[in-house]
Amino acid sequence: MKRLLYFIAAVALIGGAVGYYLWNKPHENMETAKTDLAIQANVLFDEYNADETAANAKYLDKTIAVTGKVKESSTAEDGTAKVNLDTGSDFGVLCELDPLSKHDRTTFTEGETVTFKGICTGLNFDVQLTRCVEVK
Amino acid sequence: MRIILLSIMLLLGAAHVSAQKYFTRDAKVKFFSDASLEKIEAVNKSGTGILDVSTGQMEWKVLIKGFLFEKALMQEHFNENYMESSKYPDASFKGSIANLNEVNLGKDGRYKATVKGKMKIHGVEKDLEATGTITVKQGSIAIHSDFTVACSDFNIKIEAAKVANIANEIKVTLDATLQPLKK
Asked: What ipTM goes with this model?
């Protein structure tokens, strides 16, 4: 009987611990996150503009490394830094830097070639990537 | 000579047309669910907005997977169980300023505006009316609005077991500053 009580207590404890862990599960660490694929900014942008549904099937929610030339680098009053990568069009690949990661730098020079790793969230004029970190 | 004049006129005309549109890719969309057991908040800072100052028409769009939550698990459930964001990757609003006679988008000032249009969330389109303020200042247009959307209006199902955790009425805040659209 005692043994059964111990067993129930142990199960409850493990269950509680698993629940607690899941509840507090941290966001993925973007610096160590595995890159699903690497692509040039203009190729990604062109694929999205040719067929958004097909591009979403390929890239949406994937961790991708995008390389391109900096068109615009900006930091908002609240500290949110964004870099728009040139695609040769009016719109680009907009990378929003990860608020949870440490960044060596958050401003970038127009024209320099950079690679960002981030999670693709889809097409909204620009192709958007969230939680980006620079890849060197 | 005539061709040059004509080209100049066309160019000026084009510049005039594009100057009537204001755009942002930095619109901040926040939402807040205030249920009895739990408060949930998420923000997306990369919403887009386009406003035609001559007609008062506007369009907003935000990508669902770009909403960041404090807790990873909530973000996962939001995307997978409620918004089905792989199937419906964005939410959008198309409408226009209903009281354009009281809002002078060409003159610096702070105006109260009512916007009417169609909101599309989770693949479902609904009429929506929202009020807010429009502040015109030195060539930029700042827009702030608070409004409420009901999950049930957009076919977003909250299981009976989660009713105490997730509110049906979601408070949404929009903050954006639009600049003349450069081409």
From this structure: 0.89
